[in-house]
Amino acid sequence: MADTATLNLPLLAASQAQxxxxxxxxxxxxxxxxxxxVISRSLMTPPALPEAGDCYLVxxxxxxxxxxGDEQLAFYLNGGWEFLTPLAxxxxxxxxxxxxxxxxxxxxxxxxxxxxxxxxxMRAETVEFDFDIGAGASVLTGFxxxxxxxxxxxxxxxxxxxxxxxxxxxxxxxxxxxxxxxLYGVGTGSWLRGVTGQPQAYYENTQLKLTANGGDFSGGTVxxxxxxxxxxxxxxx
Length: 237
Hints:
By secondary structure, the protein is mostly beta strands. It is 6% helix and 46% strand. The chain has one helix spanning 19-33, and strands at residues 37-38, 55-57, 73-77, 80-84, 91-94, 99-103, 108-110, 112-115, 121-132, 138-145, 149-164, 168-172, 191-202, 206-213, 217-232.
């Protein structure tokens, strides 16, 4: 049976019986490809209990029913897995990571703002995490700013009230305690938006630093988001 050139939709044959089977299969493939989103791109093994219409981006090394489906879209249809081979320019939303990826003809690029024929590109990224504040006059988050990035801003919200003897707090890095602002509130729902005066480049993995003003921290949780740009190197071929 013949298929269409792009999405491999099955075509009706002359005088074909049970035409609805072919038409329904074609509609299901269109349904999977239209406004593309996938549940995940990190599973190498198909889920044990998929539901009709579930769609995944198969990573390198897919196994079992996804064997041979690397870098393809796998969608569950009529009790089995069907595959769509991406074309250059296809863009999908990855639900469990809340990011967009685009296929450049050879590889999937994350959140691309610009790209080149050999994969060089500029992409936007947001690193979001919940940070449980420990006791002390200042605390470090761990390495959350990746090396080779340019940070435009850090935003956040207090999820659980910040406690201690402090009056308010500042956010920055080891070399600048207030780079991303100061006088931030301690109550639940207090928010921050620390915009850099000019794009700030980081050449090593870097921690954020929270500093208590007028006292010490004893607890609390803040949800922080680092908004940055990253730059991909071109491929050799």
